[in-house]
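Assemble and predict.
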Amino acid sequence: MDVETLSRIQFAGTVMFHYLFPPLTIGLGLVMVIIEGLWLRTGDQSWKHAAQFWTKIFALNFALGVATGIVMEFEFGTNWAAYSRFVGDVFGSALAAEGIFAFFLESGFLAVLVFGWDRVGPKLHFFSTLMVFLGSCFSAVWIVVANSWQQTPAGYHIVETVVHGVPGLRAEVTDFWAMVFNPSSVGRLLHTLIGAMILGGFFVCSVSAYYLLRRKHELFSRRCFTIGVSIAAVFSVLALVTGHTQAERLADTQPAKLAAFEAHFETGPGTLYLFGWPDEEASEVRYGVGIPGMLSFLVHWDTRAPITGLHDIPREDRPAVMLPFQSYHLMVGLGTLFIVLSLGTLPLLRGGRAFRMRRLLWVYVFMVLGAFAANQLGWVAAETGRQPWIVYPSVQNGVEMPGLRTSEGLSESVTAGQVLWSIVMFALIYLLLFAVWVFVLNHKIQHGPDERASLPGADTGAPRGFLAAAAERAARAGSMTEAHGEDRADANPAGGRP
Amino acid sequence: MSHDTLALIWFGLLGVLLIGYVVLDGFDLGVGILHPVARSDEHRRVIMNSIGPIWDGNEVWLVTFGGAMFAAFPNAYATVFSGFYVAFMLLLFALIFRAVSLEFRSKTQNPLWRRVWDAGFFLSSLLAALLFGVAGGNLMLGMPVDEHMIVHQSVFQQLSPYPLMVGVLTILLFTMHGAIFLYLKTEGELQQRVERWIWRAFGFFLVAYLLTTMFTLVKVPRAIDNFEHHPWLWLVPVLNVLAVANIPRAMFQHRPVYAFVSSCATIAALATLFAAAIYPNLVPSTIDGAWDLTIYNARSSQKTLGIMLLIAIIGLPFVLAYTTIIHWVFRGKVRLDHSSY
């Protein structure tokens, strides 16, 4: 295989592995804010135990997100040097802003979150939770802005640079805010964050449903399940809305991508497929079931409005159809399933009927995998649909700006053998990491919420300042993924009610 | 502000980020290298927990350094990162493996499980320190950069004697730094063992320091070019020597905090000397001096450097505050409890 294919495989593999963690931490951040807010309002200790449990899960995923995230930043330079030279002026500043504005906020307050339960007042602790949640959302902001700029570039111009007498092209910022608010960034950011919330909701449902099936931690599970289903329901509907507006925008900004999503070959009224098997050679969709004219209706509110087909796009500028088509349709299918399932469950929560429906609970135990998949598939569709461009060409103030092809973005000095070797190493290390992640996650879930974690009196003290709390911290030590009280609860009878 | 001034400021800010990273992660890596020194399981846990809550905050400095280099000097970022492909991949594996070892070693009681992660923690820390030094050594020597800013060099060519010497120096420097940090964090028998290791590490470091200095003056004579035009730069090596000399002095006087400050100053001075030696280059070309990558031909546009400076002015105080608070929170001796690794 050539360097381009290998580098794309490597980037796809490492970024997909990394992307298991950020949406989960963003989604769990919302859950923690809600649950801790409820504790603050009601003073009910079992809410506190629930918040502590989800904080532990959050911290584990955060640590893995950091470790796998450094890889992504390195890979822009190691594997995509020409791309880095081209976009550094635009993309780099967003990346640097992410490091400075988001990561420190998140990791700084996380220490308070994990270790601060008995050391700061509930309000200050809640504030820290809010900041961690905000930090995790910020980290999505900058990276999605940078990625959106590659899809729909704005606020820049292409400049010819001469270094060592050799001419080259690169993008330079002309208007920072136009770059940040490029045509697709807000819509894609919202859709990304909403996808993360859905994952958070289904993750909470999965763990709670598992406990309900095992008849463990009943109060905790009923409450968390209700919250999880509510989050999943609200955000699944919102995902439909933001997804739809994005598809509308695509027709203007990236018609080739939209055509690939729907395997739309000839310009004309567009069919909306439910599923199918696109055949590029024959320019048709085999075994396809779709609604003729529906795509045109969704984009233009008119079933006869023409949608640009792939055949009207120069061959060298077309993305391959199969991967964008299938990943997009699977994502939409999963999204529809989320809406039906979560909205259907809401009325069953009344009187706790849902908690006794074992089959439904089993569905929820595994639906979290669907939520992980939907988040991944959305990105697969977005990134494979962008091909063959790594930065899309655009028109700025009437001037045509050339894009950069993925094949032009590679590191010139790197050989296929080197990339292959690093893929094998990444595969080994990430397999190990994945196994350990599942092992530790399972360990924490089997352990369950710590119902005796906070002894009476821990919360009655007046709220104390952060520094006073920090001083007390000095005598203790721990890891970011271990809140206190992990082992103490082993003495707790299994399944004990709070 | 002029474009040249901005480029100079960003060269300086990258220096600050680099110093922040090597001073902070330097003791993290040193602690990892010293880890096998402890004989009992409890002592090993103490060693790991001395950095337990702070290592990932320290690595944020590396992330920010990388992001800032990408944004401020994209040509240098692209050339260096692709030129060091194999070395940097190994570095990434080492950093990931270190994080995993740290996080999961104490999750079960199984002695084999623990021994494997212990070995992983030690080796990945050692490898990371070596690779940082090797990268620095190669940048001192210059790299075969052609007119297209592409490096033509295999990883084996990068492992030539001088970079390896700098790599060994880095290992010994971090080991000494980590040992002094551990001395602050431990007590009793373990602390006595650690103290012996401070002296050993210091002895070896001193030898490597002198050898590397001589090697540098012979091999890279242009390293002191800038000192002729800016005589005040001589303050840096003078401070460096004083800081090195103050380490044994402070240890003799039983003032380990001074020793730690001195070893921080030593690292900061060495990083500054590195910057002073290569300035205004970022990557000197060994093929043709005209093809050097300098802060002027590798930089971003004036507008971007200005925006980034604003971002840094707003953000860096927060980063400093965050780092200070976390280190203050976790100061003092390590006590193992049920929440430790």
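Chain A has 14 helices and ten strands.
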